[in-house]
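Appendix B.2, paired examples.
Example (i):
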Amino acid sequence: MPNTQAGSIISPRVLANNFTVTNSTTLVNITNMTLDVIAGLTYRFRFRGTTLLVSAAGEKWDVGGTCTATAINYSIVSISNTGTVPIQVISTSLNTSGANTGYTGSIVVIEGAITVNLGGTLTIRFAQSVANASPCQVNNDASFEIIQTE
């Protein structure tokens, strides 16, 4: 059961192995980047990761899960290895994705806050922006944490 004490970091997660997606634009849960949240509580969350991409396939991200939100506000920012910021999304609902192509690597930060209506899971999801037979990956240095604020 998750810790219910305000200010507690709840089970910070680190990706142990590269997570690869091939030939698919369907967003899927990244292994070990899912955390439990409790109805009626408010959390801040942060994901940070790097990628290795096929330029033609790119990347697509969102925040999903089985929980529902009374309120949520989060951003998805991707900084490419070419120095551009190809993904800049601000969302007030779960399952809003950001995607782009044309570069071979990125640093991705997803940050936000959620007040949970129906408890369940909160997860970070990844896919290719354009389906491609060559793999795109989230590197094994990715991390995801949630801090209960109320």
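Example (ii):
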Amino acid sequence: MTPAVLESVVEISVLILGTLWPFLLVNSLGLSDPTMTTATRDSSPSRAAKDIASRYGLALLGTAAALLLRWALAPLLGDTFPYITLFPAVAFASWFCGIGPSAASIVVGLAGAKYWFVPLLHSPRVANREQLVGAILFLLASMLIVIVGYVSRRKSEVLRKAQGELEGRVQQRTAELDTANQSLRQLTSRLLELQDDERRRFARELHDSVGQLVAALAMNLAAVRGDLERVTKTLDTLSDSEDLVQDMSKEVRTISHLLHPPMLDEAGLSSALRWYIEGFAERSKIKVQLDVPADFGRLPTELETAIFRVVQESLTNVHRHSQSPSARIKVARSSSQVRVEVEDAGKGISPQKQLEMSRGGAPGVGIRGMRERLRQLGGTLDINSNGKGTVVVAQLPAAAESTLSTKASS
């Protein structure tokens, strides 16, 4: 080998190593393939070796195809643009194979182009400075392509990772929704059971109370029939029978009004609430303050019924659980919503019960029923409690319409 040839070989070798050392360093650190996950790196050595061999094989195959294409275009291009067909091969290697295979593709492509297409042909010698500059420009352009491909692969990996996290969150939300739907189905089933139980209870109470009163009345009438000659005793018995009939009528009227107060349909929510609160205060000895604007007006039937039931259930809970001597009810209305507050000064809900409710535990049937009734009308129910009392807040849209009614009408 002559000194000139040796000098050319040394120049090309220094040029290649000086340009490609960053790629070789990244490849040696194991960062050449950003799409390779930790699980892939931790797999068996044979599998990793096969993956590396396949990527290098693809890169070199693409380089060989580019050299063959340049050889086919030699009659048209001559010795100009010797590296023109190598850029797609470098881009392919950088995008699909990684930095190491890209470096190999650049080295093989540069050597092949110099050997076959750059004068002096079939010789590694650099004839002039123009050829050296061309090789440098090819290396710089190839390095830029590899860097762009590397950054693009990194971004693709970040996007794939974000997509995986998003899919995980979607699955989590789907599981939570399934749990909520299951709870709703359980609530619906429980409400139907309670409705049947409540009907049986009312039927039993009507039979026990009214039936006994009627039986007593029949006995009194029989006594009157047998004791007509005893006028004084007959008058007393008739008076007793009259009292029994009045008690029977009052019992039936009370049960009927508790089921659905007729005043709610006839006079509206304000009058129905005042009537119910007066009776509740008399029976429970709890002082109840009602705050309703004088110009409150009428609301849709379903909305008035829902508000009445919320107040009724809340006062029942105050009487059963809170041990509060007083309660305050505030009903306010705006153009868009109706707000109902029921506040007591009792012992409040225990922290353990509040924690159980906040973690999704099953609340009481009355609370679940109120929430379900308000949910069907587009409203919400919030319960705040401490050692000084409990506040139940219900909010409904002013023009609410039940979802069940909507489905029935459609």
